[in-house]
Amino acid sequence: MGESASSSSSSSVHRSLGGGSGSSLSLSYICIDCCISVADLLLWRNRTGAVILLVSSTAFWFLFERAGYNLLSFVSNVLLLLVAILFLWAKSATLLNR
C-alpha cells in the first residue's frame, strides 16, 4: 500500500504544471539570462521569483479590490508619470549638454 505513492509524485506535479526538460507544452517566461517555468514559481523552487510574484499580486489585489482603484485610472497615472519622467530626463540632458 505504501508503494502506490511513488517517489516521483513531486516530479509528476512539477511536470503537470509545465516543468521538466522533456515537456513540449512548458509554460515559461524568459528573462535576460534565465528561463523560469511557472511550475518553479508555483512550487516555490525559485524562491526569489515566487516572493516577487506573491508580493506584487498582493499589492495589485489591495490596490484594485480594497482601495477601489480601477484599471483605467491606474494605467493613465502610470503613463502620465512616464511622460513626466521622460520630459525631465530630456530637459536634464539638454541642460547638462549630454
Question: What would you say this structure looks like, in words?
Answer:
With 98 residues, this protein is mostly helical. It has 2 domains: 1-67, no CATH class; 70-98. It is built from 4 helices and 2 strands, in the order αββααα. The chain has helices at residues 9-16, 38-42, 47-66, 71-95, and strands at residues 28-30, 35-37. It has a two-stranded antiparallel ribbon. β1 and β2 form a beta hairpin. It is elongated, with a radius of gyration of 22 Å. Residues 22-26 have low confidence and may be disordered. This is Reticulon-like protein.
Strand order of the largest sheet: 1-2
The quaternary organization reads as single chain
SSE order:
HEEHHH
How many distinct beta strands?
2
* Helix vs. strand class: mainly alpha
Mean pLDDT: 77
What fraction of residues sit in β-strands? 5-15%
Which regions have little confidence, pLDDT < 50, spanning 5+ residues? 22-26
Radius of gyration: 22 Å
* Shape descriptor: elongated
Number of domains: 2
Major beta-sheet overview: 2 strands, antiparallel
Give the fraction of residues assigned to helices: 55-70%
Rounded to the nearest angstrom, the distance between the terminal CA atoms is: 73 Å
Count of separate DSSP helical elements: 4
Biased composition (Low complexity): 1-16
Organism: Brassica cretica
Transmembrane segments: 48-64, 70-90
Keywords: Endoplasmic reticulum, Membrane, Transmembrane, Transmembrane helix
